[in-house]
Every structure is written in structure tokens, then in C-alpha cells.
User: Fold this.
Amino acid sequence: MHIVFLTNEYPKKDEPHGGIGSFVKFLAEKLIAKGYGVSILGINNNCKNEFSNQSGIKIYRLKKSTWKFAKFYQHKNRILKKLKEIHNENPIDIVEGSELNFAFFPKRTPYKKLIRLHGGHHFFARELNKKPVFWRGYQEKKSFKNADIFIAVSNYVGNQTKKYLKSNFDFSTIYNGIQLDYFYESDTEKEVPFRLLFIGTVCEKKGIHKLIEALPVIKNKFPNVHLDIIGRDWFMKNGKSYINYLKKTINENIKDSVSFRGNIPYSKIPYEIEKAQICVYPSLAESFGLTIIEAMSMGKSIAASNIEPFKEIVADSNSVSFFNPNNSKEITEKICELLSDHSLRQQLITRSRNHIFNRFDSSKIVEQNITFYKSVI
Assistant:
């Protein structure tokens, strides 16, 4: 069995990447360990072709187009040409991509085209009460028509995507997995009192602006509170940094209580989580939530938005304190409650780690993916 993952987000040394890149790396390494063939194919962030072989995973990064317009056309041609070369060398069974990847693929291919729904353009636009952009929306609908099979990373993202696309495709839900062995049981004695931690891409949909808005009131009650924000920057439509935008909105009274740490190596994430007294995830919209799983797996006190994907992860474990992400007063109340109630924090800590290891066992998730792949080829 030979799987090709289409992604531009596969982790590259010393460069930031998001949750999708982390997940693909996790699954690719597990598949290789079990003797299956894995290739990664995507567009590079520079104008040169790069190839590497990482423990059997073949990674092809194709040079970025220099065209001023219609870059997608040149990228599509390069990807299809490279897929043909890879297939001739080692026949491909499945090409897996995101919601937009197959817009300009032929309908008939010698391999199955699989979309894994991590949350596409329609999903996030509608979840944030925005109108989908016509061109991206068109590509997404075309991609779904060209794809053969579908996996959703949560029941919610699968059902909502069907609703927003007005499509009746069938999907299977397989939750994302991470290497849980990296996330050891946290030592509470290493917690820094009143340290709040956010980890994730610093962008609008992560709701970080509402958390910052809530901080002045939290600081009035807990003067030593400090918020660490870890994650890569996001650039808005006008090309400006979202982090710089947030910095301009911060109340003068709390400027010394907020640190933008930027992106850090994935290997250092557990140490940062361990030092936090409370991990906070105020997302306005998500398709899943790897960062919340990472914190839960370490047995941390967590305050998070009450969006459906987070509730799907937590299920009936009662291991997370939920709040309305659009209500800064409610965010304040939940965080203050956790900061002041040691007993409540301990209850969340006890429940969260056990729940994650029971429900998101890495080996089970890998086997679910392998079983699915075999069933469709």
C-alpha cells in the first residue's frame, strides 16, 4: 500500500507549521513503521525543488510559482506531473488531500482521491458568520465532486460541511492522532502560579482577542497573572501581522502581563504546557483541536470555548471548564474560578489525562486509518 499526502504544511526544520502538519507527520511515521509506502507532496515556500528521505518517508517540495496571477494553474500542473512520476516508480493506491486539493484533478485517476476534512473554506467561513469567497468556494465544490472518498476529523466538521456545501457525500469519522508518548504526566510542582497559556496559530478564529479583552479584569483580581501566547503569526488580507494588530489593542495596564512568544519547536511544547497553571483555548471555530488534546494528555487545568468539536473531544468526561468564546465576561469568570479553586483544578487534572488515553489511543487511531485505507483499495 502506497499513500501520498498532498500538503504544503509538512514540518520543515526550523520553520513553523500547524496542526495538520503535525498530524500528517504522526500518521506518516506510523505507516512507515508498519511497512507501508508513504510520500509527501506539496508546494515549497521558495522557488526551488527539494527532495528528502526521512526514515523512508519521501518528501517532495515543488518550487513555488513566480507567476503574478493564476499560480494555482502552474502548481496544479507540477503536482499532477510529479504524481505521475511517483506512480510510475511506485504505484499509488491513495492520494490524500484537503478540501481544496482536487479541484483541478481529472475525475478518473489510477489512484483513489481522499479528502480528509480538517475544516475547509465553506466550513470556517460559515462558522465565523462570513460569506465564502466565490473563487475559493468554487474550487472547494469542484474538489469534492472530483474526490472519491472522505474522512472527517470530527462528526461535527463532517456534518456541517455537508450542510454548507449542500452535498450528500458519505464520510467516515476518524479522529486526529498525536504521539501521546511525547506528552508526559505533568508535575504540578513545576507550575508557575497564575500563568495562563495559549498555544495555536495567532489568528482571528482562535479567539485570542477575546481572551486579551478579558485579561484586565482577571488582573484586577489576580495581579500576578501572566498570559503566554505561543504560536506562529497570521497575516491578514491587507498583509499585516495579526500579532501586531493585537498588540495595538492591548490595554496599557496589562501590557507587561502578555507575552507573544512566537513559534517554538514542537519538542518544547510539553515543557511550556507543564509550566502553565491553566491552558486556555478560546477558539471561535475549529474542526477538531489537537492542542486541547495535548494539554489534556498532560493532565492540565483547561478553560476552553464551548464549540462543538471541543465538546466532542471532551465528551462526558467533565474534564474541561467551558465558556462562551464571544463573551469576555464569561471567559473572565471561568478563568478566575479556576485560579481561585485548587480543588476544581485537581478534579479537571484527574479526569483529563485518563480520558485522552482511553479515547485517543495512538495505536487505535493508526489502525482505524489503515483499516479504512484497505477497505477502499
In short: The chain is about 40% helix and 15% strand.
